[in-house]
Specification:
With 76 residues, the chain is mainly α. It has one domain. The protein contains 3 helices and no strands. The radius of gyration is 25 Å and the shape is elongated. It starts with 9 loop residues before the first helix and ends in a 10-residue tail after the last helix.
């Protein structure tokens, strides 16, 4: 945005994005819990991130318990 077209503060920018005025594309968020206010795609992406994190943790634990020590034969 051109500096002259920018909102004067972060608060007014947030209101502009999340506005519930007559020209707004966003539904009213009043009376909803925090989790209901989060966009569904963000909830889905958050869930995927948590699942991948747990999966990586489990794979790491399984890989470390199944690792066998490597013995190097001495050259004679």
């Amino acid at each position: 945005m051109h500096p002259n077209d920018r909102p004067p503060s972060v608060g007014s920018f947030r209101e502009l994005i999340l506005s519930t005025g007559p020209l707004s594309l966003w539904p009213s968020l009043e009376g909803r819990t925090y989790l209901e206010q989060i966009a569904p795609i963000n909830r889905l992406l958050g869930l995927i991130a948590v699942v991948l994190l747990v999966l990586a943790f489990v794979v790491t634990l399984l890989a470390s318990t199944q690792a066998t020590p490597v013995t190097i034969a001495a050259a004679t």
